[in-house]
Amino acid sequence: MAKQPMLKFVTTPRDMPEKRDAEVRNKDFDEIYAEYAAAKAEEQASRCSQCGVPYCQSHCPLHNNIPDWLRLTATHRLEEAYQVSQATNTFPEICGRICPQDRLCEGNCVIESSGHGTVTIGAVEKYITDTAWEKGWVKPVTPAVERKESVGVIGAGPGGLAAADMLRRAGVQVTVYDRYDRGGGLLTYGIPGFKLEKDVVMRRIDQLEKSGVTFVMNTAVGEDISFADIRAKHDRVIIATGVYKTRELTQPGCEAGGIVRAIDYLTASNRASNFGDTVPEFESGALNAKGKKVVVVGGGDTAMDCVRTAIRQGATSVKCLYRRDRANMPGSQREVQNAEEEGVEFVWLSNPLDFTGDAVSSMTIQRMRLGAPDASGRQSPELIEGSDYAEDCDLVIKALGFEPEDLPTLWDQPELAVTRWGTIRAEFGTGKTSLDGVYAVGDIVRGASLVVWAIRDGRDCAAAILDDLMAAKAVAAE
């Protein structure tokens, strides 16, 4: 009788890839988790219970066929596992690294509720695709037929790149426009190397270029080229700009020197530390935490990226200020744990009151408590009177979240409909906007969200565009 390759969660404990020691990893920007060896990946994949209703799959925004590629991995069929993985996910090696699996697939793993510990889905996904790259299974796209229709994509982040990939597979001519000098968006300049090493992103950009996607970099729409010109050049246009406008502090003294935006800080760090670029603001210390007392204001994943970056840059102290408690913070609990291990101090239930100095030298912090739930159901923070205290600081990083830029004004497109939050109003499932032939995907539609949702939007939008192009071709033929 053949040996059962799966359902080994009862006898095999959950085992994540080895995490480098905090005292070592907090001095460099290399990824903190080691790679699974083949035997370990197969062992951990074999823990899957192959349940009849795979909640891991249904709670994945891309509905990845996780049970199947776990089984294929466990039974030594790794190339097939990769093919199944990439069939629904344009960038599985990226999602395996940065998706909050604890809130998505792994957080809904059935065996977790039985006390056996969730399957390490993200680590196995990363292993499968890294192996595929190593073995040469990942190849440039070669469409069966080249088509004359062209699509312009504004934004080289995950949503735009996912759409570009799917459209090229169908033979559509694709041009991607981006304001930066490298593709990837926040994957390249927003997420630190210790979570996502940059060669992982760059090899995907290279694959897309070799597949025939044209990249037009260092090009800001509305400045270097007009939106109208892009529409005139292409049969369809996808807006995938993301959201980059920082939510600001409003407290007295918030305009002081040394109070900086998270996106500026992380971009400078990624350029200098991961690409070796010369960054004047980094060299001068304006966007460098070395030797400084750093306070990061915010509790999301961007704040976690900032505090962990500051530790690596050699800050003398790093504190994270968040107005709610640990249980109510929006960032990943796994990231909080990693940050604490690396030397970050979290100051829960606290908020800045004011800042002192032309070049910030201290701030007043208010203590908070959680009151009654607000409209969203979360407990609202309330000030504790008389609890203020002073905190010395040389660098304050604003990580309060992002908002959309006013694209209808910036691009001179008043007919482009937006929501009351300033995001582009787009049809669910297709991304169609109020402008004919113009679509929108990712954070510019959803607001600041997850990379995996941007990938989902990009893929769905590409499918909708292909349907529309086919319908237009049928009408023209009549």
Structure description:
The structure is a single chain. The protein has helices at residues 22-25, 38-45, 55-58, 66-74, 78-88, 92-98, 121-135, 158-169, 186-189, 198-210, 227-233, 262-274, 280-283, 301-312, 333-342, 407-410, 443-446, 451-477; strands at residues 150-154, 173-177, 214-216, 236-239, 245-246, 259-261, 293-297, 317-321, 345-347, 350-356, 362-373, 379-383, 389-392, 395-398, 402-403, 438-440. It has 478 residues and is α/β, with parallel strands linked by helices. The protein has 3 domains: 22-135, Fumarate Reductase Iron-sulfur Protein, Chain B, domain 2, CATH 1.10.1060.10; 150-243 and 404-477, 3-Layer(bba) Sandwich (FAD/NAD(P)-binding domain); 248-402, FAD/NAD(P)-binding domain (3-Layer(bba) Sandwich), CATH 3.50.50.60. Helix 14 links the parallel strand 7 (293-297) and strand 8 (317-321). Helix 4 (66-74) runs antiparallel to helix 5 and helix 12 crosses helix 14 (301-312). The chain is globular and about 75 Å long. The N and C termini lie far apart (62 Å). This is Dihydropyrimidine dehydrogenase subunit A. GO terms for molecular function: 4 iron, 4 sulfur cluster binding; metal ion binding; oxidoreductase activity. It holds the Pfam family Fer4_20. Residues 25-136 form the Dihydroprymidine dehydrogenase domain.
